[in-house]
């Protein structure tokens, strides 16, 4: 119903629509703004959201090379490595290093090969530092196929350094290596449509599926150390747990595909770990020298 006419005889506007709009403005605003606030909170405070933001930020940056990244963070990392090497009597940059990733312990250990005392004395390995693994997936056992969410197990080389990783920076491993391909051929996986997977990295951040995430600060240090040592002199041993102190997994506890050849895999990992003294042994030897 129209309002009463004004002094000129024109009908007055009905006040109901204005009143109705005021009454519905606040709920309408909430219905529009609340989803945006929730999405923003997810992006800012969840690991997945931070990863997405980081990916978008990387897309907006021009590509950087290894030297660019070293200029960005290597100065501090090199000073920290030198302070760790000095008590061992080791010189930075080293001739070779071994990284040991222990899946169950969720830790990466760094070992350096010391210079031999003489031509007749073999070079020894010394523990230098360790970094926690902040993100990984899967269980004990090797990676068998693409999409199985498993972190590989074995002895790997660093195939390349990735200065433009979505996860700050990364070391790309050479999975699948010759052993992985040979086992796939032996058990028949090589002839199937299922791929072995790839793109296995040690990278920054705290989230990962099939890779090893160690945080941005730690990857800056490992990236710098690998670059200064030379990736051809970096070995990476990935084990289900520390096989120096515990037996290897029972084949019956693994995927049946790996049961027949897993003892061979774990014997190779045990041999790679045997010369590495572990943190406590290195610290004891260092104190004896003081």
What does this 3D model show about the protein?
The chain is 40% helix and 16% strand. The chain is α+β, with helices and mostly antiparallel strands and 290 residues long. The chain folds into two domains: 1-45; 66-289, L,D-transpeptidase catalytic domain-like (Beta Barrel), CATH 2.40.440.10. α3 crosses α5 (216-229). It contains eight helices and eight strands. It has an eight-stranded mixed sheet with strand order 3-2-1-8-4-5-6-7.
Count of spatially separate domains: 2
The poorly predicted ranges are none
Output the radius of gyration: 28 Å
CATH topology of the largest domain: L,D-transpeptidase catalytic domain-like
CATH superfamily of the largest domain: L,D-transpeptidase catalytic domain-like
The amount of beta strand, in percent, is 15-25%
Features:
L,D-transpeptidase catalytic domain-like, eight-stranded mixed beta sheet, alpha+beta, 8 helices, 2 domains, 290 residues, 8 strands
Tell me the layout of helices and strands.
Blueprint: H1 16-45, H2 47-60, H3 66-85, E1 97-102, E2 107-113, E3 125-132, E4 154-162, E5 170-173, H4 178-186, E6 201-203, E7 212-213, H5 216-229, E8 234-239, H6 256-259, H7 262-273, H8 278-289
Parallel strand pairs: 1-8, 6-7
Antiparallel strand pairs: 1-2, 2-3, 4-5, 4-8, 5-6
Helix pairs in contact: 1-2, 3-5
Question: What's a quick, concise take on this entry?
Answer:
Helices cover 40% and strands 16% of the residues. It has eight helices and eight strands, in the order αααβββββαββαβααα.
């Amino acid at each position: 119903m129209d309002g009463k006419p004004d002094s000129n005889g024109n009908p007055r506007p009905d006040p109901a629509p204005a009143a109705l709009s005021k009454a519905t403005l606040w709920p309408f605003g909430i219905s529009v703004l609340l989803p945006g606030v929730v999405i923003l909170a997810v992006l800012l405070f969840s690991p997945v959201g931070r990863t997405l933001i980081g990916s978008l930020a990387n897309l907006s940056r021009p590509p950087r090379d290894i030297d660019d990244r070293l200029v960005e963070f290597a100065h501090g990392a090199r000073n920290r490595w030198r302070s760790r090497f000095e008590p061992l009597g080791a010189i930075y940059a080293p001739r070779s290093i071994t990284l040991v990733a222990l899946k169950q312990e969720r830790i990466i250990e760094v070992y350096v090969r010391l210079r031999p005392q003489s031509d007749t004395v073999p070079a020894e390995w010394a523990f230098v530092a360790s970094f926690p693994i902040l993100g990984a997936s899967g269980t004990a056992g090797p990676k068998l196929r693409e999409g199985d969410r498993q972190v590989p197990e074995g002895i790997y080389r660093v195939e390349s350094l990735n200065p433009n990783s979505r996860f700050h920076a990364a070391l790309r491993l050479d999975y699948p290596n010759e052993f992985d391909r040979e086992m796939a051929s032996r058990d028949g996986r090589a002839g199937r449509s299922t791929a072995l997977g790839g793109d296995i990295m040690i990278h920054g951040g705290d989230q990962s599926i099939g890779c090893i995430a160690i945080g941005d600060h730690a990857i800056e240090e490992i990236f710098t150390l690998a670059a200064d040592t030379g990736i051809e002199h970096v070995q990476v041993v990935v084990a289900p747990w520390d096989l120096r102190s515990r037996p290897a997994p029972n084949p019956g506890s693994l995927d049946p595909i790996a049961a027949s050849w897993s003892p061979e895999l774990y014997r190779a990992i045990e041999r790679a770990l045997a010369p590495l003294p572990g943190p406590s042994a290195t610290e004891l030897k260092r104190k004896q020298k003081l």
